[in-house]
Amino acid sequence: MRRLLFALPLVVAIIIGGFAIWGLSGGRDPGAIPSVLISQPVPELALEPVEGVGSPGFTTAELNEIEGIKLLNVFASWCGPCRAEHPILTRIAEEEGVTLIGLNYKDKPEAAAAWLEELGNPYVAVGSDYSGRAGIELGISGVPETFIIDEDGIIRHRMAGPVVGDGRRRFTEILNEVRQ
Predict the structure, then answer these.
(1) Which domains occur in the chain, in start order?
(2) Could you give the CA distance from residue 158 to residue 114 in angstroms, rounded to a whole number?
């Protein structure tokens, strides 16, 4: 019995080490956060406009009325990576012919308005999620996050993190797959 108790820490260390090796081995993207909403309709949202922006808010029904593929970008003025991806998403929307919709997450309206005034407002609608309720409905893990929504209102992809660098290339590939 003493030998068993003596060996117990060694067995636990081997198990923990095995999980560490498995977690660090290739074949998995640590940035890929699964979402239960993939292949599901956009949840019911009703977002008021961000005061001072001059763009309307939106509901899920209004989102579904927009023809073609839509990108729903969750952003905030206090988010550094959101600033980095903003011009890239603007360019993707222009070059790829997709509609860009903004969801301003837990942000003061005056800060969001100033941010969009400075960087430009590429969004056809910008909904305010000051309470964070819409973020909960969408299952976001933080900002930025961008959802690719097909013409039928079905979420086809979720990009957690900024659409920059290699992420932009992968995002564009997935956008092209959704088109087919």
Answers:
(1) 35-179 (3.40.30.10)
(2) 27
